[in-house]
Amino acid sequence: MTMPALRLLPHGLTALRLALAPVLYQLIVAGEGDLAVIGLALAIATDAADGPLARRFGVASRAGAHFDFWADFVLIEAAFAGFAATGTGPWSIPVLTALSFGFFIATVRFTPEIYDPVGRNIGGILMGSAFAVLALRDLMAAQVVYMVAFGALVMTIGARTIFIAGVWRPGISS
Amino acid sequence: MSGLLRGLLIAVLIVAALAAGSLAWLNWRVNRETVTPLQTLNGDGAAGRALAVLSPGLSAFPADVMTAFENGLVEKGWRIGHTTASAEAPADFQDYDLIVLASPIYSGKVAPPMLAYIERAGDFAGKKIAVLVTAGGKPDDSIANTKALLTENGARIAAAHGYAVYQSNDPDNAYQGGNTERAVQMAHDAALALADSLQ
Question: Residue B136 has what DSSP assignment?
Answer without folding.
Answer: S
